[in-house]
Amino acid sequence: MKKYVLMLGLIFASLFTTYAQNNPVPEHLENKPFSKELLTFKLTNLEGNTISLGEVLEIHKGKKIVLDFWASWCRDCVLDVPAAKKLKRKTRHTDYVYISLDQEIDRWKKAIKRWNIEGDHYYIAEGWENELTKYIDLDWIPRYLVLDETGIIKIPKAIKISDKEIKELVD
User: Fold this and answer.
1) Long-range CB contacts for residues 78-83, cutoff 8 Å, separation at least 24
2) Total Cβ atoms within 10 A of residue 17
3) Distance, CA of 169 to CA of 110 (rounded, Å)
4) Does a cis peptide bond (omega within 30 degrees of 0) precede residue 156?
5) Fewest Cβ atoms closer than 10 Å to its Cβ: which of 32, 84, 148, 157?
6) Which residues of 127-160 are buried (b: 16+ CB within 10 A; e: fewer)?
7) Phi and psi for 63 in degrees, rounded to 5?
């Protein structure tokens, strides 16, 4: 009986993963900036201060930005860390902004230290269900968005940092 339950779970997970990976990107994300309303969305930085998404983007203005939505409990996210480090070493004009969906701030901070993840780090206090994740139609993590130097979303959805489109755009 346990084998059947496990097998059913694996089948369901596989179907969900396939759906998430193939789910179409919302039209409002393709070659457009974030909406003005969304730029007011609040994130928490490592020091515990709140900062708007617009302020975060302003910090990185003039550079390409890889937004990495992740969580410390996400196996796929953690497995992508070495590839992200490798890509970062090759790209000098791209900034990496990590947005965590962790449920606990302490776990988030410990994971950053444990895996030595360098970049600009933020935490979404509301967790998975919030204005930002709804706007980007977040259905899977890790999830990467790439913005050009002017803040236009050039890659609205990638689930691997090694995605060919990401490599081509940030090189």
Assistant:
1) 78/111, 78/115, 80/142, 80/160, 80/161, 80/162, 81/115, 81/117, 83/160, 83/161, 83/162
2) 13
3) 31
4) no
5) 32
6) eeeeebbebbebebbbbbbbbeeebebbbbbbbe
7) -125, 155
Q: Would you give the DSSP letter of residue 35?
A: P
How far apart, in whole angstroms, are the C-alpha atoms of residue 100 and residue 122?
6
Termini Cα distance of the chain: 50
pTM score? 0.86
Residue pLDDT, tens place only, 111-158: 999 999 999 999 999 888 999 999 999 999 999 999 999 999 999 999
Quote the tokens at residue 149: 């130097």
pLDDT number for residue 127: 86
Q: What is the pLDDT of residue 18?
A: 43
Is residue 84 within 8 Å of 96, Cβ to Cβ? yes
In whole angstroms, give the CA distance from residue 4 to residue 2: 5
